[in-house]
Amino acid sequence: MNSNKTIKAHIIATVIAIMTIAIFFASSLIAEIIGHDHTIQRVKKGILYGLPILIVSMPILGLTGKKLAGKRRDPKILIKMLRMKFIAMNGAILILLAIFLYYRATYEGIDHIFLIVQIIELTIGAINLVLIASNIRSGLQLTKARSNRTINND
Description:
Blueprint: H1 3-34, H2 37-69, H3 75-108, H4 112-153
Helix pairs in contact: 1-2, 1-4, 2-3, 3-4
């Protein structure tokens, strides 16, 4: 895959991932605020059905990011790669929590255990949104710096 295609794939995967996480986060938060068990169950089912989107987009995001970084050792790139490790770890945890919350809401009811796990899921989801947003900001800065170098070298 050439550099332009890699950049496009990276941007598309980033947009899909952050939008999916944001939708999951907002839907869960709104359902909790509304507080109807049926609404919470429907949201958890929707999230469960939407998980494949993240399971596909996040690895694409990581792989294209690694490819774009190449062997460069710019501190911003190293920090982005470190953040990606945390994002991936949190993502794996979030997938497990989403499955657990769906099961709990659907088959065992919404109780104090559900609510505690829901708070954990929302916290980790918020952390991932911040980490991804930080990586987007760093990526834009790197792109700007790269454009400036290209312009100055002409």
